[in-house]
Structure formats: structure tokens, C-alpha cells
Amino acid sequence: MSTSTLPALPVVPETDPSRASLDSFRIAIAKRLTETLPLSLEQAFSGVDYGKKGEDFTVAIPRFRLPGKVDEIAAKVKEGFQPDEWIESIVLDKSFLHFRVNTANMISEVLNQVDYLTHSSPSGKPEYGSNELGRGKKLVIEYSSPNIAKSFHVGHLRSTIIGAFLANLYKACGWDVVSLNYLGDWGTQFGLIATGFEKYGSQEELQKDAIKHLFDVYVKVNKDAEGNAEVKVEAAKWFKRMEDGDDDALKNWRVWRELSVKKYEEEYDRLNVKFDVYTGESKVSKESMDKAQKQLEEMGLVSESQGARVVDLEKYKLGTPIIRKKDGTSIYLTRDIGAAIERYEEYKFDKMIYVVSSQQDLHLAQFFKILELMGFTWAKKLLHINYGLVQGMSTRKGTVVFLDQIIKEAGFVMHEQMQKNEDKYAAVEDPEKTSLEIGITGVKIQDMAAKRINNYTFNWDRMKSFEGDTGPYLQYAHVRLASIGRKNPHLLPLPPASQIATDTLAQYPHARDIAFLLGTYPDVVKVALKTHEPSGVVTFAFRLAHAISSAWDTVVVKGEEDLEKARAKMYLYECAREVLAAAMRLLSIRPLERM
């Protein structure tokens, strides 16, 4: 449903003014261009870009490649212009035209749309910023994917944070999303753990923290194996029994896997991340892998190299990956191929994303290429979203080994920071929980602030700072907005949108800036869907937080005697809070009400 009160405009494909009110203003500008220049509405619309340095929208005339002098063509658009309900002014700047939209109408259109799509949306959930681009399409996304019994390193953390963002993003764009956690729950290390468990295992420790205990057993038995070759032989035999489906050999493994998943689920929940399916290397059937290898052999794509089976991808500059080891056991490339085939059969996806570090670029390129050579048309629907490395994430006690160490450290560092302000600390309801949430926000924002591919050095001091573009600063901005209502209870609940005098906001340049920024949020989401970069959403959230912070001294609610004006300002800040919260939720962050 449209919340607009302005006259109807022509329709432009792939725009949706009922979800992005600035689309209407861009269409109005495009219409103005078509009235004076030989352009179709769609051509004109594609030339209306967001302006820089305080301009709303800018049109670069040269891009249309029209015959004649550029400045004369531009002047023609401005000739005889009369301000209307959409456009306030046109400024001629050499070959550029800057359009300023009607302030009062823009503010009311944007705020009413934010309010309606947040509180009265068809789904009953906040929907501002979302769109229908992916309606009817299915995405399968694999991310996080740690190894059971090995350390959860920082690369897994990046995959978790970026993957959770992408899953939220695709859902916000109308896709049906299946989130998979593909656990490293299979392989010779389980043979080692099984032999080690008889010697070092403890049921009690296992129940307490399966992830840590299995890791400890693994470390100890590895040490034994270094001094005694027999240990590895035993382990290999044990794993062979598992591969052959020997129930005795699988009994313990099943318990270990289940307890590890349970522990991981708790930790992911603290990170505000949820998986639909915990799958894993163990779930890929031997049939799929054998069938895939047989198909590759029949197609003449496999050759032998030192007893192992390899696929020659040299002509694609992708090397010669091994698909089966000398001893006949599978390796993870074969398993990835089998898993992809099974997933397509199960989900019939329109796209499948793997969120894996850039160190694996070659492996994924080989794997995608092999599927393509096998003749699977859906191989083109696979996408590798990669990311750079993190340095410097160690805790006070040394290197990080487990996810819960990162989570605990983030909470501890933040808790210590909060205790420095005694009065504020005393006012926080649940300081432990609050400091954990702010700490996790700090870790996530530091991770998502720059382009994915960049390596970065993690810095605990930066993470806990409330100054500058940090996670705590974002939470603080949201909490401050949430407190306006608590400090001005006489204004709440606000009357319906149609009864709020938003035109009184037009006199405040800061209110205009905030409203315009709120209006850009649906486009921020669309751009993120194209680039798969969380950094654009992070940048938006900080720009909004800064715009709000600049407005505090001029757009003042407390002490405003004119009730109409006070309500309009309150409405502006409420809408700003809703959009800041939406951007934070998209980034998998839980917005706090108090801190």
C-alpha cells in the first residue's frame, strides 16, 4: 500500500515507490528531463544519481550522448522551470544539473513510509528497507562451517559474521533462504580422537564442554602419534571402519557430533546467528562421491598421478587437484562435489553461496569448474563470497582457540570499560548481558567496516571505544534515541501519522538531512545485494548516527513548548531509531534499549 499523498507519477520498471519514497522524486526528475530532452522515461531515470556535497540528486548530461552543446542542453532543462510538489529547485553547474527536492513533501513522504512499513506492514514485522527483488527464488548459503574437535579460528568467525549478514540481506530482498553450517565432522582426525578417547576421554568433561574436551583429546593423541607411528595406523584403521559404516565405530562419533552441535548452537545464539541445517562432511553419501568420480572418469577428465586420482584443469590455469587419495579414501574436493549435487537435488536452488576465506579461492574455482565440466547447468548458480585475513585476535591468555573465548573476551573487555563510569554502570539493569551485547557489536562492526577482501588487524582497544566509528558508538546512538520517549512521556503515544505536523520540520536543515538519509536506506540495501558487501550498510549506519548526533542541539524535543512541533520532532527521532535498528538487525546486531 502507498502512504503517499502526492499526485500519481508514471511507472518505471524496477522501482517501487511504495517501498522507497525517494524513487518517486527521482521519477519526477526523470519526467522533467523527458519533457525537455529527447529521452525515454527509463533512459532519463537511469541518469538521476544521488548528489554529492549536499546536493539531493545530480544529472550528468554528457552521459545521455545527445547531439549539441552539453551546457546548452542542460540550460534547456532549467528553462521555464517552476517549483512543484516534487522539485524545489534546479541548479545549473556546467554540464551537471543539481535537483533539490521539495523539503516539506520529502520529509513527510519518507517519515510516513518508514512509520507505516515499520508498524503496519503486511507481514506484521518491520519491513522498511526490504524489497521483493528475489520473490519466488531460493538461496542456499553455507557459512561458518568450523571443524569439530579443532579450533574455531578467526576465519570461521569472519565467515559467520559475513554469512549471517548475507542471509539477512537476501531475506530482506524477498528470497527464500536456507542457511547451512557445513561442519568438518568427518575425516582421519576422528580416527585419532577415537583411539585417544579410550586413553584420555572423560564422559563428564565431554558433557560439560564437548568442543573443548574433544580438542584436548585431539592435542594429546597427536602428541602420542608424533613419537609412535602405530597410533596413526590405529587411527586410520578406525576411520576406515567409520567409512565402512561399522556401527560400533560410529556410536561414539554420533554422540560427539551431537554434543558439539548443541554447544555451537548456544554460542551462535549469543552471536544472534541461526542455522536452518547443521549438515557436514559426514552427511555426504559415499554413493554421491563414487558416482561423481565415475562420471568424471567416463568423461575422460581423470588421470593417475603417483597412485592418486587427479583432474587436469591446467588449461583453465587451475592446476591438477586430487579427487581420491592413494589409499582410496575421499578428500574434501570429492566431498564438496558430492555435497553440491545432493544439495541441488534437495533444494533446487536459484543460487548457492559459499562464504569462505580468500585462501580457498583456488579450491572453490577448481570445484566450480569441475561441476561445470560435468555438465551441470546449475554450476553457474554457485557463488564464492570471499574475505581477507584477521590478524591480532588473541585474548589476555594468548591465542584464541574457541569461539566462546572470543565471545567471553568481548564481554569482559566491555564490562571493564563500563565499570569506569560508576553512575551509568549503576543504572544498567543487567550489566553482564549488556556488556556482552556491546562487546559482540564491537567485534562485528570492526569486521564489517571495510571491504571484505581486506586483511585487517583486530584491535581490542578500538572495539571497546565509544568514540569514532565503532560498534559501541552505534549502540549508544540507538540507546540515546530510545531514551527520548522515556524522557518525554507526555508526547507518547504519538497520534496517527496523518495528524503529525511534519511540515514544521522543514525549517531545520538537520531534520531535512536525517529524513533524506532515511529515504536512501532502501537503496543501501539494494546496492549491498549487488556487491555482497556489509561495509555499505555499516557506513550508512554511521552516517545516520552522525546526522542524528548533529541534530541534538538544534532539533530539540525536551522543553519544546509548541506541542505540534514537539510531536513532529519526536516522530522524526522515532523514525530514525526504527531505521538505525533495521540497519543494525540486517548486520545481525541486536539494538539495545538501555546501556
From TrEMBL:
It catalyses: tRNA(Arg) + L-arginine + ATP = L-arginyl-tRNA(Arg) + AMP + diphosphate. SUPFAM superfamilies: Anticodon-binding domain of a subclass of class I aminoacyl-tRNA synthetases (SSF47323), Nucleotidylyl transferase (SSF52374). Keywords: Aminoacyl-tRNA synthetase, ATP-binding, Ligase, Nucleotide-binding, Protein biosynthesis. CDD domains: Anticodon_Ia_Arg, ArgRS_core. One of its GO terms (biological process) is mitochondrial translation. One of its GO terms (molecular function) is arginine-tRNA ligase activity. The keyword Nucleotide-binding applies. It holds the Pfam family DALR_1. It comes from the Eukaryota. One of its GO terms (cellular component) is mitochondrion. Its EC number is 6.1.1.19. The keyword Protein biosynthesis applies. InterPro entries: aa-tRNA-synth_I_CS, Arg-tRNA-ligase, Arg-tRNA-synth_N_sf, ArgRS_core, DALR_anticod-bd, Rossmann-like_a/b/a_fold, tRNAsynth_Ia_anticodon-bd. Residues 474-595 form the DALR anticodon binding domain. Belongs to the class-I aminoacyl-tRNA synthetase family. NCBIfam families: argS (TIGR00456). This is arginine--tRNA ligase. It comes from Gymnopilus junonius (Spectacular rustgill mushroom).
